[in-house]
Amino acid sequence: MKHVLSVLVENEAGVLTRVSGLFSARGFNIESLTVAPVGDGETSRITLVTVGEDNIIEQIIKQLHKLVPVIQVHDLTERSHVERELMMVKVDAERDVRAEVLRIADIFRSRVVDATPNTFVVEVTGSSDKLDACLNLLTPLGVVEVVRTGKVAMARGPKRMKEVLPA
Amino acid sequence: MKLTGAEIIVQCLLEQEVKTVFGYPGGAVLNIYDEIYKCEDIQHVLGRHEQGLLHAADGYARATGEVGVALVTSGPGATNAVTGLATAYMDSIPMVCITGQVPVPLIGNDAFQEADTVGITRSCTKHNYLVKDVKDLARVIREAFYIARTGRPGPVLVDVPKDITIATTNYEPAKGEVSIRSYKPTTTGHTGQMRKAVELMAKAKRPLFYTGGGVILSDAADELTKMARKVGAPITNTLMGLGGYPCTDKQFVGMLGMHGTYEANMAVSRCDLLIAIGARFDDRVTGKIAEFAPEAKIIHVDVDPTSISKNVEVDVPIVGDIKKVLTKMLPMMEEDAFTQNRPDMGDWWVEVEAWRRKECLKFDQSDDVIEAQYVIQKLYELTKGNAIVATDVGQHQMWAAQFYGFEKPRRWLTSGGLGTMGYGLPAAMGAQMAFPNDTVVLITGESSIQMNIQELATLKQYNLPIKIAILNNSFLGMVRQWQELFYERRYAESDMTVQPDFVQLAQAYGATGMMTSRPVEVTGVIEKALAVDGPVVMDFRVNREANVYPMVPAGAALNEMILL
């Protein structure tokens, strides 16, 4: 089963390598991974999507915890959370299909962030399913390039990450 | 107080009460060496190869329980250290390794003797650091020692660029214990789980203790002994756990696993409660996982949560330091709930004694050819079981585990997890540095010892009177055994007939050398070696095609043993 892990780490050089190295060394799977510094600049938050049976996920979480710069690991799959992904699609858009691209963009409440006489760059955010659906419609029109961020996710409710987790 | 980076390193080592540093100088660490030269309170041991030095620091740590310290230079110094780090990492040995690095402005420029040391060692250290600002240096070294010895111990590496060692900064002596917000090992254990464990122990009809290196690392042998006696159950040690329980005690059933005793492995297969303490269910121990302890509920005490339910599903997990956990559990075992209405274990012991009567370790010593087991038995007798014993890896290692009994912890130095040939001689060296008056014996093979034989020079330099017993069968013995059993005797590249004359080689290094191939001379050679005040190499020409038995073939269940 797919799991979304939120990992709070010290914002220091090499942390991402430690995390990704752990996955490759132990044969775990990473489906997507996003990372950026948050808040005071002292910590970074990694959102990591991985697939595995329950016992594998349990090992992954324990192993992540064991890395010295890892402060918190949180399996968001188990609780109510929101998740988003950002995608940008560069589409071939010559005269006759331009309107069609704009219509599709509109359906998915996405925005055109760049336009040339023969291309558009469309920016879409939402669940990964929504992004897939949008891409499916755009593909027949001639997709030149796609870039996706992978998921970012956060627990619902007023609590901060440190408070959500048991000590 | 303004100090240079090199001075800070030495100050921090003194703060940590480091007495011995195992090292090898080179360009990037010359400033540190200049400070060590001036420092009278730290003894520096010069080895002959960085791998040996790391193993020496490892042997020192295993024998003393303190953090072993190694100091090597950048590039090749650091890459040579990798095997030593990986060995210590797999066996959870507390160690701090300081490596030199090229100056900060040159990092990443393919400078002379540059290697990405933190990158290379990331997966074979518990943690590692690259210090890019002299202001961080003292904190990093203190953290390194703290991380190395707390929680599940392990090696920590600190990479120090050369310009950092000459840069100056304010140095303040350490204040209090180190605190790292992202590193808080659980050590106390959960009281509710401990109660559950005690309840299970009170009810079990066929309990068995299975204990590993964690008992040694946590200095919990006394507590374990008390607990095992209270339960009255048989106890088996892993390879790493030998010495955690007195081997001559009647409850002890020997080592378990691939080359464990028949009684230990049968007991695992039959027990109704397995009390696993500081052991990690390694594949060499469990054999076929699905048939490991099939009838048992399992209690598992370990300081490392990732070890619990990693290979085998556990019923009662207890995360904590073993000494702390056992100390808390012992009083619970005085209570009525434990002492009253316990089932009689008579039938269980009848079963165990029946397995024991198989005498699975029996061997015949003829008048013609020396058996390796016989040499180890004689070593045990003549050192009265009191020696610190180091081994390399292979058949001799398994025979040493089977035939040299250990009454006490920290007398047995062997590379269990990584299986590092070349470990033994330097590890023995480290232990002898720590305990100059104890008898240190190295049991090795002719192939293993050649992997770090250059350290014989170190024995000479520091006058370390290590007694080296080479069980020489002119084969990569364990490889040959597997080829015999599983490759229809195709002995591909396991023949080691071409080898040095170990007697002359010992003499060339300033040690005493002796050789025999006659069973009748074994005792005499060992007695003579023990009487010599200095290092001795004993070359015992043993039975070439002897196998280590009993044996569980890889992938088989523990009760599917091959007996001799």
How would the blueprint of this fold be written?
The complex is a heterodimer of chains A (167) and B (564).
Chain A: E1 2-10, H1 15-26, E2 32-38, E3 43-51, H2 54-66, E4 70-75, E5 81-92, H3 98-107, E6 111-115, E7 119-126, H4 128-142, E8 143-148, E9 152-155, H5 161-164
Antiparallel strand pairs in A: 1-3, 1-4, 2-3, 5-7, 5-8, 5-9, 6-7
Chain B: E1 2-4, H1 5-15, E2 20-23, H2 30-38, E3 43-46, H3 50-64, E4 68-72, H4 76-90, E5 95-101, H5 117-121, E6 127-130, H6 137-149, E7 155-161, H7 162-166, E8 168-170, H8 191-203, E9 207-211, H9 213-217, H10 221-231, E10 235-237, E11 252-255, H11 262-270, E12 273-277, H12 283-286, E13 297-302, E14 316-319, H13 322-332, H14 336-339, H15 346-356, H16 372-382, E15 388-391, H17 395-403, E16 412-413, H18 424-434, E17 440-445, H19 446-449, H20 456-462, E18 467-472, H21 477-486, H22 502-508, E19 512-516, H23 522-531, E20 536-541
Parallel strand pairs in B: 2-3, 2-4, 4-5, 5-7, 6-7, 9-10, 9-12, 10-11, 12-13, 13-14, 15-16, 15-17, 17-18, 18-20, 19-20
Antiparallel strand pairs in B: 1-8
Helix pairs in contact in B: 1-2, 1-6, 3-4, 3-18, 8-13, 10-13, 11-15, 16-17, 16-23
Summarize the entry for a quick read.
With 167 residues, chain A is of the alpha+beta class.
Describe the protein in words.
- The complex is a heterodimer of chains A (167) and B (564).
- Chain A has 167 residues and is of the alpha+beta class.
- Helix content of chain A is 32%, strand content 40%.
- Chain A contains 5 helices and 9 strands; from the N terminus they run βαββαββαββαββα.
- In chain A, the strands form 2 sheets. In chain A, strands 5, 6, 7, 8 and 9 form a 5-stranded antiparallel β-sheet that branches. A 4-stranded antiparallel β-sheet of chain A has the order 2-3-1-4, covered by helices on one side.
- In chain A, a hairpin with a 4-residue loop joins strand 2 (32-38) and strand 3.
- Chain B is α/β, with parallel strands linked by helices.
- A 6-stranded parallel β-sheet of chain B has the order 3-2-4-5-7-6, with helices on both faces. A 6-stranded parallel β-sheet of chain B has the order 11-10-9-12-13-14, with helices on both faces.
- The longest helix of chain B is centred in the N-terminal third of the chain and has 15 residues, at 50-64.
- Chain B is globular.
- At the A-B interface, helix 1 and helix 2 of A face loops of B.
